[in-house]
Every structure is written in structure tokens, then in C-alpha cells.
Amino acid sequence: MQTHDLIGIGFGPSNIALAIALDEKRHTGQPVDALFIEKQAGFTWHPDMVLDHAHMQISFLKDLATLRNPTSRFTFVNYLHEKQRLPDFINLKTFYPSRQEFSDYLGWAAAQFADRCAYAEEVFEILPERQGDEVSLLRVRSRCADGSVRERLARNLVVSMGGTTNIPEAFRPFKDEPRVFHSHNYLSRIDQLGPLKKVAVVGGGQSAAEIFMELHGRDASTQVDLIMRARAIRPSDDSPFVNEIFNADFTDYVYDRSEDERTHLFKEFWHTNYSAPDLELVQQIFKVMYEQKVAGKQRHRLLRRHQVQEVRAGADGLHLRLLDTDGQLEHANRYDAVILATGYVRHQHKAVLAPLAPYLGDFTVDRNYRVRSTPGFRPQVFLQGACEATHGFSDTLLSVTAVRTEEIRCALEEGRAQAPARSRAAALQA
Questions:
Q1: Sorted alphabetically, which PANTHER family does this protein's record hold (predicted)?
Q2: What is the domain count for the chain?
Q3: How are strands ordered across the β-sheet holding 317-324?
Q4: Would 226 be classed as within a structural domain?
Q5: In contact, 383 and 373? CB cutoff 8 Å
Q6: Residues 6+ apart with CB under 8 A from 213
Q7: What does the pLDDT read at residue 420?
Q8: DSSP assignment, residue 132?
Q9: Same domain, 102 and 75
């Protein structure tokens, strides 16, 4: 059985950035034997939301490396140089590349670590390996596409599994209904349904707004209802002083606050990251609605302050019972498809780490994203993208990815240096 210094679960942007950080330090410190395990058959990054005209909401300078090492060969600028598009990109005069281009950049970076990633394997269990009164290693169990199980040993672990789709309670019984699906699967699922007369999009954030506009341009005969709990589509606040909350040094500020202070911060800045599309997109939707009024023909509707009370699937379509919370009035609508642009939850790490709960407790982390553990538990376990409650809104975004991976790398190096001699010898024997 192979033993690695580090195993990373998932190979999305966060762990790609970590692979880069480790690679760029291999000549200046003790090399780290790192392996990453990814359930997808190859690198993908939200492929079903790479819509025409969709662009990044974050500057290209917040890529996988620049804020950590501007001279890295893995910067977005160097990607453009190698692709021979740098002068043309400069002429675009933008900090926000298309989502398609940034996805290609991430795939370009991932491809350079193909020999350090095991694709098409899903990690389903992490078990402690005891030696005497200590846990010195972790047994990582993954299932391959053919159903076979592989096991590897790790001295340290980085969990970066991303989010899982947030499905409102009323829609949970319909997980196998092809006419109800999350925005995460938008392009592949919408194309399978063929022509649609009436579609509901549930949500009021960036994904909901993008899908609304995509459906508007897809087929002039399709009617779309945008169902949202809020009174208005509120644009994200990306003004300079507000945007400072996404700076890497703001992580220290958030982490050092009390729980009550963090709750106040999250409430104050909620609309910088959630239920807040780009202003340009909001203006496009308003223009569509206004032009309907001019033409005197209502094709789309914005159902504000509405909640889905009940869902029923029939041969003739999906029937939604909606509550208008302004007047407490209920009404029913029939749709050919319902798209849930309802965001993500980030608790997946707790399930895969459950066998380690006796040693990791409630999975609280220190400033360097390392899960606090009991004495005698020697492996270091780090979380990426699951620490928003203690580290701030930037934790699930690209904003701090490059800097965070350097902090994890340094913590990993420090932990290895401080490991008791007995544990190091046992690990080497393994």
C-alpha cells in the first residue's frame, strides 16, 4: 500500500493551487509527496454554467498563484502568454475574463499535474491507522469507476470537496424527476428536454439571473417566471472599500472576532456574495421587463416575494403552489421545467471524515485551516472551502486561494518539523 506525505481530496481550483504552491517550493525545502484524488474522470469546473457571455465576477489577478507569487509560471497572465493571446486580452480592457476562458486556464494548470492526480476515484472513507497509543497515518479509501476499491496511506490530508447542491425542501422528493434540476446541471439537462413553453427559475442570485437571460435568448417562444423571496433583485456591492472584505489580510480580522461579531459582519456584507447578481445583469433583466411593457406583451414574469409551498409532478408538467407573501395569497402555476438556482451547502467533508470524529471533534479549525485534534493524533487535516464561518466570505471564493495554499503549505511544513521522532520513524517505516 502506498504511503504519501499528503493526500488531497478533490482537484478543483483550491487543490490545484496547493499543488502549485508545493511544486514551487520543492527546491527550497523538504519535498512533499502529494497525491490528489478526484471523482470526475478529468478536470471540470462548473461546465454546465459556462454560458455564452458569462464572465467572471472576480479579477483575473486573483488566480491560482499571483497573490502568492506574481512571478509564478502558473499565473493567468502567463497562461495568456503561452496561449499567444496576451496582447489581445490587454485590448479587451477588462479585469474579468469570460467564464469559458478562465475554465480553460484552470484546466491548463490542472493538466500540468496529471501525474499527481488519480481521476475517476471517489473518496468515501478515511480511517485512522493506530500504532500503539497514537494515530500516525490515515487510510484513504476510494471507489473507482468500475466499482473496485483502492486504499492508500497518508501522513497528512487536505479536504477540498467543494459544495453540494442546496435543494429546497419542497423539491427534495423529486431528485429523480428530469424536469426538476439544479443550476449546477443546467446546460446538460436543459438540452435534453427539447422545446419548452414555460419554465420556472427559483432563486435571485447570479446563477438565477444568468439562466433567466440565457432562456430569454434561447427560444423566443419560451416563457420564464423568475421566482424569488426578495422584493427586488439586489446587485452585488463590489465597490472598493466593501471589496476589502475579500482581501487575504481580512481573514485575520474575521478569525479574531467573537462569534457575535462575525454574525454581525456576515449580516452586513451578505449581499456582496449571496443573492446578488452583477449590476450589468440586473440592468439587462430590467430592460427585458421594460420592453415587454412597451410592446404590451407579457412573456416573462418576476414573481417577487413568492415562496414555493408545494410541488406536484404530472404528465402535463410540474405544478407549483406558490405563496405571495405580500398579500398571503396562494396561486398555482404549471411549468414544463423548474430550475433551482438555490446555491450550495458545504458540509460534505463531515461525512467523509466521520470515522475520525473521535479525534477531530466538531471539525473546528485553527487560523491555518487545520482541524483541531486530540493529543496523539499525528496527521494534520486541512479544510479548503469549508471554513466560511470562521474565516469569512472569501473562503469559498478564488479571492484568497493562492494565499491560503501558502498558509497551508507552511503549516504542513511546520507540523512535519515538529512531529515527534517516534512518529516520524514510524511514518518512514510505513
A1: L-ORNITHINE N(5)-MONOOXYGENASE (PTHR42802:SF1), MONOOXYGENASE (PTHR42802)
A2: 2
A3: 306-314, 317-324, 329-335
A4: yes
A5: no
A6: 281, 284, 285, 288
A7: 56
A8: T
A9: yes
